[in-house]
């Protein structure tokens, strides 16, 4: 038998890219590839890219430049670009960096085996279509290999919201939901292979409306179906849009024991003037009222969010409104970004905020977010949580896992194994994790 070819995949961007990279590795497994962690020994290098901010997109070209030496040493090495930069820039990538052999957009991954064969034959291979067929149904099934206790499962892709700053509707296309039975089959398969927690993924995951046995099913409906799977202990979902946070989903947070008390619900800004210009179609007040309803249903829920500062025409008063909103919500985790101009999006044409001012706002916002994060993490001390253990810690006999609120928890308990869930009392709050003792 010939040596298997080696595939090196580097993944940027969101969790959907992480999921896609796994699926691409599996698809290329059928072409005789095994994964390697080293670019040096690879026969094929795939960059799974992100286009969300300018820095993310530019990183791809500097990374590609670093492969020049590898390609000179091994002329058979094939280099591919997948993901959102591939979709946004297409052929331009090969023009700008001629060592690229293959460019494939996120909706065409099921065509990867053909594209790989084309590249092997010495041709340039490009596919950035939005085909009618569902890539997930055409992608090879996952092999039956054992897995760690947590997994991502994409249930929805694309976005129809068109926030004025965002490239996702252009790189991932229109909203599409996968059918319920396919998701349940994949979830059962993951559980058989050792998975205990599944995070359902979608750019707008709570807009999910996949075909079910009796018509379309909502995300809440899907969660209740997943709830019936024995051995699946925890369900999460991300990312949600405030406008799709329906009553049945809020009710699931109150009544579905497997649905974890954690919700990523980006608001982006706290000023109605800016929200309007962002085309978010919600106000700061409607968001705050929504958070109130969610907390009434599940009082201990940990909220997380995303923010953009320095959006075109954002004034100091607008920014203060963002700080106010953050003070009211108190996020357990929040991610904040300086606005980055994306070519082709409506906001790119508008008057920009002075970058020094934007930097200053970002720092001020991050200081508040970090303070809340810290206070919320520290407030866990003395409480009992459940921890799903994922891997051994650095010390002998130590295991690390996540609480239901996604805090990392270290426990000294030699008897514990990955995949087990245990009740743990939190005894200390460290820099980036909690320490606990089994109860
Ligand atoms: N679908 C999700 C997340 C999209 S991208 C949602 O609607 O919330 C993740 C985050 O990147 C966004 O929530 C936003 O905060 C940030 N982001 C998107 N476009 C950006 C841009 N042009 N500049 C800076 N941050 C951006
Ligand atoms: Fe981008 Fe807005 Fe869609 Fe989220 S909802 S992916 S921020 S356009
Ligand atoms: Fe980036 Fe595409 Fe995800 S732009 S954030 S990889 S959907």
Task: Fill in the keyword field for this structure.
439 residues, alpha/beta, Rossmann fold, Transcription Regulator spoIIAA, 4 domains, 6-stranded parallel beta sheet, 15 helices, 34% helix, binds S-adenosyl-L-homocysteine, binds iron/sulfur cluster, binds FE3-S4 cluster
Query: What is the distance, rounded to the nearest whole angstrom, between the alpha carbons of the first and last residues?
Result: 53 Å
Counting H and I runs of at least 4 residues, what is the number of helices? 15
Helix fraction, binned, reads 25-40%
CATH homologous superfamily of the largest domain? Answer: Methylthiotransferase, N-terminal domain
Oligomeric state of this protein: single chain
Write down the overall mean pLDDT: 95
Give the strand content: 15-25%
Q: Record the strand order, biggest sheet.
A: 2-1-3-4-5-6
Major beta-sheet overview: 6 strands, parallel
Give a list of the ligands: S-adenosyl-L-homocysteine, iron/sulfur cluster, FE3-S4 cluster
Structural class by helix and strand composition: alpha/beta
Radius of gyration: 22 Å
Number of strands: 21
Low-confidence stretches: none
What is the total number of structural domains?
4
What is the C-level CATH assignment of the largest domain? Alpha Beta
Shape: globular
CATH topology of the largest domain: Rossmann fold
Task: Give me the CATH architecture of the largest domain, please.
Answer: 3-Layer(aba) Sandwich
């Amino acid at each position: 038998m010939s040596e298997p070819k080696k595939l090196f995949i580097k993944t940027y961007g969101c969790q959907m890219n992480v999921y896609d990279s796994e699926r691409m590795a599996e698809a290329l497994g059928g072409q005789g590839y095994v994964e390697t962690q080293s670019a040096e020994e690879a026969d094929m290098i795939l960059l799974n890219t992100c286009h969300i901010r300018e820095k993310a997109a530019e990183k791809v070209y500097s990374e590609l430049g670093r492969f020049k030496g590898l390609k000179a040493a091994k002329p058979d090495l094939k280099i591919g670009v997948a993901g959102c930069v591939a979709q946004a820039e297409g052929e331009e990538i090969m023009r700008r960096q001629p060592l690229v052999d293959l460019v494939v957009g996120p909706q065409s991954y099921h065509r990867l085996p053909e594209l790989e064969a084309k590249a092997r034959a010495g041709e340039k291979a490009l596919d950035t279509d939005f085909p009618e067929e569902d890539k997930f149904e055409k992608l090879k099934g996952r092999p039956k290999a054992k897995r760690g206790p947590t997994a991502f499962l994409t249930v929805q892709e694309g976005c129809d919201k068109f926030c004025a700053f965002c490239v996702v509707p252009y790189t991932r296309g229109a909203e599409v939901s996968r059918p319920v039975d396919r998701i349940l089959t994949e979830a059962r398969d993951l559980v058989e292979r050792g998975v205990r927690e599944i995070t359902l993924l979608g750019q707008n995951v709570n807009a999910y409306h996949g075909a079910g046995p009796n018509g379309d099913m909502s995300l809440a409906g899907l969660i209740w179906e997943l709830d019936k799977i024995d051995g699946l202990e925890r369900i999460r979902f991300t990312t949600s849009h405030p406008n799709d946070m329906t009553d049945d989903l809020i009710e699931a947070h109150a009544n579905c024991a497997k649905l974890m008390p954690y919700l990523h619900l980006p608001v982006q800004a706290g000023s109605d003037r800016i929200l309007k210009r962002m085309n978010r179609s919600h106000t700061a007040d409607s968001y705050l009222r929504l958070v109130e309803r969610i907390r009434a249903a599940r009082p201990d829920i940990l909220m997380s969010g995303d923010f953009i500062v320095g959006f075109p025409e954002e004034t100091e008063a607008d920014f203060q409104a963002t700080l106010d909103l953050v003070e009211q919500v108190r996020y357990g985790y929040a991610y904040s970004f300086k606005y980055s101009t994306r070519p082709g999006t409506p906001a790119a044409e508008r008057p920009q905020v002075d970058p020094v001012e934007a930097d200053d706002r970002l720092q001020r916002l991050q200081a508040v977010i970090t303070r809340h994060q810290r206070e919320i993490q520290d407030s866990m001390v003395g409480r009992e949580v459940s921890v799903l253990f994922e891997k051994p810690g650095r010390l002998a006999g130590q295991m690390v896992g996540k609480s239901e609120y996604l805090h990392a928890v270290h426990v000294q308990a030699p008897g514990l194994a990955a995949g087990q869930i245990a009740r743990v009392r939190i005894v200390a709050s460290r820099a980036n994790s909690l320490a606990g003792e089994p109860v």
